[in-house]
Amino acid sequence: MIHVVLVELKIPENVGFIARVLKNFGYENLWLYKCKVTEESFKTAANARDLLEKARKIEDLNSFLSKFNLVVGTTGISGGEYRYFRKPMLTPNELKEFIEGEVAILFGREDYGLLNEELEMCHVLVKIPTSDIYPVMNVSHAVAVILYELSSKKTSEEKLATAGDIEIMISKVSELMELIDFPAVRRKREIVTLRRVLGRARMRDYEFESLMGIFTKTISFIKKLRTEKEKSKEENLTS
Q: In degrees rounded to 5, what are phi and psi of residue 56?
């Protein structure tokens, strides 16, 4: 199921136009995170006013996203200082192949889109192919293009791992990185890469449990070896 998440939209009319777009393509789940909603929003929503009235507000974006199976970020920018935050970049048509389970699609601010820390939370990034002369689209138009592409997608009913599950696995990997003295300066970048890989994998819940068992056992084994090594060292010193 598709959930459209609007992040800090500043122009009330855009919120209304987006509600209208959702209704055009048969979607109902609209979420608002710090968006400006006024009577102008309801005017531009037109016959989708009911959908805007039912739109739910988000208090904590990170906690909210943890329950989804796939978190999708949208952007009109592919470069920048943190280029690795913006890879891989899919087209809306390519995104269709990854849509399964509960999916949150984030659309950011009209002026500068989603922040790097918000993009970092996403499993997949989408960029609509546009002219290099003027690549950035109005947010409501971007929503329309993406929902049109996804409207023909059929999804399965299998239970998938959630974003929260993936973060639990990432915490295990982070612990493993620390145990093996993985270079600290590279950890954040590799964690972002891992989050993207796991998000695109559409991991089933039983696959998650299997991998977690491997990571947990590996960490326990390394800790046991370290404890035995320290104990042996102490015994040698006292003998």
A: -105, 145
* Cα gap 31→37, rounded to integer Å: 12
Helix (H) or strand (E) segment spanning residue 176: helix 163-179
* Spatial separation of the C-alpha atoms in residues 195 and 124, rounded to whole Å: 9
- In three-state secondary structure terms, 59 is coil
Per-residue model confidence as pLDDT tens for the chain (239 residues) = 999 999 999 999 999 999 999 999 999 999 999 999 999 999 999 999 999 999 999 999 999 999 999 999 998 876 555 555 666 789 999 999 889 899 999 999 999 899 989 999 999 999 999 988 888 889 999 999 999 999 877 666 678 999 999 999 999 999 999 999 999 888 888 999 999 999 988 899 899 999 999 999 999 999 998 888 888 777 677 76
C-alpha span between 134 and 45 (Å, rounded): 27
Distance of CA 41 to the CA centre of its chain: 26
Task: In the chain, list all ranges with CATH 3.40.1280.10.
Answer: 2-150
Provide the CATH number for the domain formed by 2-150 in this structure.
Answer: 3.40.1280.10
Exposed e or buried b for every residue in 1-21, given b needs 16+ CB within 10 A?
Answer: ebbbbbbbbebbbbbbbbbbb
